[in-house]
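ARCHIVE CARD
SHELF: 3
SLOT: left
DATA:
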Amino acid sequence: MNIQLSEHFTYKKLLRFILPSIIMMVFTSIYSVVDGIFVSNFVGKSAFASVNLIMPYLMGISALGFMIGTGGSAFVSKTLGEGKKELANQYFSMLVTIAAIGGFVLSVLSFIFMRRIVMAFGAAGDLIDYCTLYGRISCISLTAFMLQNVFQSFFVAAGKPQLGLKVIVAAGCTNIVLDALFIGVLHFGIAGAAFATMTSEFIGGLLPVVYFFRKNDSLLHFVKPVFDIRVFLKTCTNGSSELMTNLSMSLVNALYNLQLMKIAGENGVAAYGAVMYVNFIFVATFLGYAIGCAPVISYHYGAGNHAELKNLYKKSMSIILVWGVILFGAAQLLAPVLSKIFVGYNTGLYAMTLHGFRVYAIAFLIIGINIFGSSFFTALNNGLISAVISFLRTLVFQVIMVLTLPLWFGINGIWSAISIAEALTLIMTTTFFVRQKDKYHYL
């Protein structure tokens, strides 16, 4: 039985509705994680480091999809809550069209200038060729990847999170199988990893296009788009926090790599890459919750249902706090196994990765509140507060920490930078929650 956006949500119903989005985000993160495992174990440390160097750029470019998806789904869900279904479909069609055009332009430009880009991100020697090859192949499917990011949010807004999950699972499984074939069996090296990811991204990005073009029983379908600059600007404002999050994370990850190259060389970059791959999966659960919950919040906000807003806020905070403790405990227990999966072939690299992951994992205790806080205000169509939280969390505080802490604590300063940055952000997030409660009636 499908759960509708308009329903009252118990804990069980809320988790059932949001679980597909969580699994969807986990499978999305598996793309790069599986690449990392196969590249590290079958191609080598240098190739693994090169993927880690170029990945921040590719993820930063794909941020356009997250911005339009999260910001647009909030606006479209609010419009659905107001009872304007046809107008919501026009907005939906317009935003997907803009994402496709923007993605194509960015893909072409990135392909042309990829070699210069990887050198700017710190690649040198053999790493330049590795990074350029992986990056250019990835550019072929970059538009599809952006659309995949867009549809992750719109499947939820359409009331079809389970269908979105099926698409992502199909794409993720394709990536895993092709990685094993291209890298483990056929020995295509780093190019094999890129081709596997490219194929899976085409599945994740283009299958939803086919679905929404056909007649379907969801709340959304493609119609002739009507371009409304006001709606597009509002979408950009709403989704600016997600754009800022992805761009900032890309910049900060590049900064981490540069700092680690100075302190620990190629081993440092490889260790950080392994930590970040595991982090992708853990944090993806928080991101999936935020993506799945946002359209529900937007719908009830648009419908003026303050009682349900209070219900969603309180239940979400409880779930996220408990899940943060569970993830922290799991990270500490599983750190040896997870580190060995990526870099078990090198004793020194394994020890560095294990220590780094255990220190880094402290952030899991609080990061979920900050992610939900940013998404919550996006869902309320308050893009400014959402952007401020994301800007402080993913850029300002982390940049300050990663530049200053290593001066006193060396590599341990890099591993702990994320936790201190998240703690500082939590203070700001809590302040916004308290100050905005009378305006939106969620407390």
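SLOT: right
DATA:
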Amino acid sequence: MDSKDIDIFKVLANETRLQILHWLKEPEANFPCQDVDPRMVGVCVGSIQKKTGLAQSTISHYLSMLEDTGLVVSTRIGQCTYYRRNEEAFSVFVTHVATDL
């Protein structure tokens, strides 16, 4: 197991980060009023923050951690940063866990 795997497990050990990943799996259902296509572009950090009820700085930190592990991808449009799941990274990680652990 390498350090990237350990980082992913650490990120997944937080209930709020897990909830964000769960919400981003079906962004249309969980964030219905987006200005962009949530599947292609993502969900605005402000919408994620509002849904969690946590401070903007906390959510930004959590999303940064998720992005550092490759589990989410960000896109900046205007004043908002949008986040979406990186399904390819999930697939690689799940395969790695299933075959190597």
